[in-house]
Amino acid sequence: MGADPDEELVRRIGAGDPAAVQAMVARKLPRILALATRMLGDPAEAEDVAQETFVRIWRHASGWRRGHARFDTWIHRVALNLCYDRLRRRREWTTDDLPEVADEAPLPDAMPGDEECKVNQALQRIAPRQREAIVLVYYQELSNIEAAGAMQVSVDALESLLARGRRALQAMLIGDDGND
Amino acid sequence: MAEKRTEGPMDARRFAALADAYGSALHRWPPADQAAAMLFAETEQGFAILARAGKLDAMLDRHRFEAPSPALHRTIVARAATEVRQERRRRFWWLGFGLAGAGLAGAVAGLALVTVVSPDIQPDHYVMDANATSFGDAGPDADQTEEDL
Prior knowledge:
The complex is a heterodimer.
Chain A: H1 7-14, H2 18-40, H3 43-61, H4 71-89, H5 115-125, H6 128-139, H7 144-151, H8 155-173
Helix pairs in contact in A: 1-2, 1-3, 2-3, 2-4, 2-6, 3-4, 4-7, 6-7, 6-8, 7-8
Chain B: H1 12-22, H2 31-41, H3 44-60, H4 70-117, H5 124-127, E1 132-133, E2 136-137, H6 139-148
Antiparallel strand pairs in B: 1-2
Helix pairs in contact in B: 1-3
């Protein structure tokens, strides 16, 4: 594992450097907000998650020690946990009863230019763990090992979640199995 | 977590499985598979598999979101000063408690050591007893001697 590009910034935040705080928010807020928006499908809730994630960053900065995970992977895990707390509160699913099968019925036809909304709807209709895998690997561009670490699953399990999630999205968004 | 590496040249089955999982952009694929995947992507079969995965990628790429608002940025930064200061204060107090606890534990351990190692101290009244001698308590014998006389 190479050097952690965030480690020095975290150390400076822990020492009370205001410039480091600004730099950390500029660097991580877009990523955390994107993650939460795609996981929750609700911009207002995503902003709350982003704020709570940063509160945890500020609290842990002075005691941050790099373990097995990079700082970026750690904040992804924190943000994802906060997203799951909100998903549970919505009673979309419970911890013991994770929906593993997505609702793959094709979405209603979108108006031209409304494809973004259609993609958002499709993402919200797949199982949360599949959505999490796709968001981490596809949108956040974490490596397979980092994503598997953040999800606390094996790389094989991650690939299975990715493949099932993409198949479900393909059925909803393209309406067939993707063949010409 | 170990990276899984494709043994030998990539076959169509493994290439399709990776495309199903990671999509058509090879930079998202596991680094250990990328070199072999690039070679296979040049084949007709590889090209067809990537084209199929690319259709979904094109749809997913349409999902964008707005940049964070300056107000959100400001709110998060404003909270940082308070939280970092409170956390440092909390750590300082815990460090103080830790040091005090260590000091107390040392004092208790020292007292216990002294109690175990040190010999019993004779009671003062015994030591100062006028009838006591270096041969033991000779008091009754002395009394007896006086009576005999």
